[in-house]
Write a structure and sequence with these properties.
Structural class: alpha/beta
Shape: globular
Order of helices and strands: EEHEEHEEHEEHHEHEHHHH
Number of helices: 10
Distance between the termini: 36 Å
CATH topology of the largest domain: 2-enoyl-CoA Hydratase, Chain A, domain 1
CATH architecture of the largest domain: Alpha-Beta Complex
CATH superfamily of the largest domain: 2-enoyl-CoA Hydratase, Chain A, domain 1
Largest sheet: 6 strands, mixed
CATH class of the largest domain: Alpha Beta
Strand content: 15-25%
Radius of gyration: 19 Å
Strand order of the largest sheet: 1-2-3-5-7-10
Length: 256
Amino acid sequence: MSATLTYRANAAVITLNRPEALNALNGDMIQRIGALIDEVRQSEAKFLIVVGAGSKAFCAGANVKEILGKNSADQKAFAQLGQLTFAKLDELPIPSIAVVSGVAFGGGFELAMACTFRVATPKARFALPEIKLGLIPGYGGTQRLPRLVGASRALEIIATGRILDAAEAERIGLVSKIDEGDDPIAIGLSFATVLGSPPPASLLMARQAVARALDLPLTQGFEAEAALFAASTQTGDAGEGVRAFLEKRKPEFAGT
């Protein structure tokens, strides 16, 4: 299987499973990833962890051979397949955590950026090297990277195609944490534990509100925040959270 889905504790785990090809993406693998994300959406998992099989790569990017021989319309459809598949992570009600060990180049870097959070091991390396082939990123990299690190820095990374090590990735905000562990799934579970167990509806609304900050003028962002805040107050978990605070006890969120 080019990608597999397993469950550990309260987390779903998608493993990019082509270690002989450094987990490089192709059309079939991207479709498989999309199908697995759809399956996770129907599960009771609280988190999604995305890892790469083997010790050398999270994902080395797209299969360059698939680019050859396609006309412009086919190339656009190929890019949109990756974009729409990775966008499923934005719509997933639970947060996703990419654990990057080894290289995350091209489409692999774009997949990691599509996740809610990124954790790296010290040997993680990131790059969008498409410019060196006379291309540009096509799976969302030109849109997600500026939102993570700012337009000027993103353009420099894209224009040079240079490799970022884990320390730089953490310094500029690409990754939330560097973990010294050697088991990517265990690293993802550890990070999920740090996140705790926030009410699912509230966490989703928080993600939506932060996303609005990137897309809307400030005054419209305030309006979106107010609407999402109002919606959050009407959940069962909000009532439980407020009562627990007043009663000086730990809340027992039910996911309602």
